[in-house]
Amino acid sequence: MGPRQPPKSRPSDLAAGPSAQSQALTRYYSRLQADLLAQGLLRTDGGGPDTPFTAAMLARDFERIALYDEYESGAGMRASKSGAGVLRRWSDPVRVKLHFGASIPPEQRATDTKSVTNYVNRLNRVTGHPIGMRDKDANFMVLVVSEDDRSEVLSSVRTIVPNIQPAFLQILEEIPSSIYCLVLSLSNMSDDHEYNKAIAIIRAEHPDLLRLSCIHEELAQGLGLPNDSPAARPSIFNDDDEFALLTTHDEMLLKILYDRRLRAGMSAEEARPIIRRIARELVGTHS
User: Fold this and answer.
1) C-alpha distances in angstroms, 167 versus 18, 72, 133, 173?
2) N or C: which end of the chain has fewer CB within 10 A?
3) Neighbours of 24 (CB within 10 A)
4) CB 99, CB 144: distance < 8 Å
5) What pTM value is reported for the model?
6) How many CA atoms lie within 13 A of 114 on its CB side?
């Protein structure tokens, strides 16, 4: 259970330093990271001999993570009970822009800018899809914000997505401490199987590793891997927190997602034989 929620600070209070609420979250997430590390979790090794997986396991994980939704559409953070959907991904180049809330200090901005830039370059290499940092005409916004930047976040999101679902805005107005970070991917109006806009929100109160973990998971999810699976290992798409950063298994999921033999809008039945073929090719070269 997270800390109690003190009254929110006003933007004019930022010069005085973090609010009591933001400081409480910083302490909470620091303890959380320490506890997870003490349990041998938040691994950064990408998997190894203790986490073997087969082509069949990789194909199963891809189907569960790419073709199912974690949350019910239009229902905020309510867990989805829907069956398999269709393959969704970006067809346009992904142009990532990093935005910091007013409360974020210069040293943290520098660290996070380097982390996001390096990771975006890695995603570009892994997927083979054009993904890069852009200052102008960005379509994937990454907001690094604290509790003290709440009004700024809401204003930015309303500007980026004027027709945003009320349920999502409600979540942003009072994000529970159990939600470390989140991403909203939006589909093209002419083709709802192709994403054309995304917003990731990263809590600034996280210590460095948890914050980097959020960057890795939310940006990858925003590319078209929206779900988690308890069977996926080694993977960040698993709620057990065993791995903090994108693994070799997860890189393969992204390779499958952007393989040209698949297309946006494919059903699970259409995609399954192709997914299995690609998985065999990938694992065969990494066994």
Assistant:
1) 28, 11, 29, 10
2) N
3) 19
4) yes
5) 0.88
6) 6
SS3 for 278? helix
Question: Nearest-CA neighbor of 195 among 170, 175, 225, 174?
Answer: 225
Mode of pairing for the β-strands spanning 131-133 and 94-100: parallel
**What is the tens place of the pLDDT at every residue in 1-27?**
344 444 444 444 555 789 999 999 999
Q: What is the residue extent of each domain of the chain? A: 1-40+89-223
Alpha carbons 151 and 116: distance in angstroms, whole number? 24
Cα separation of 121 and 123, whole Å? Answer: 5
In tens, the pLDDT along 166-183 reads: 877 877 887 889 999 999
Give the pLDDT band of residue 165 (cuts 50, 70, 90): confident
Q: What is the pLDDT of residues 93-120, one digit of tens each?
A: 999 999 999 999 999 999 999 999 999 9
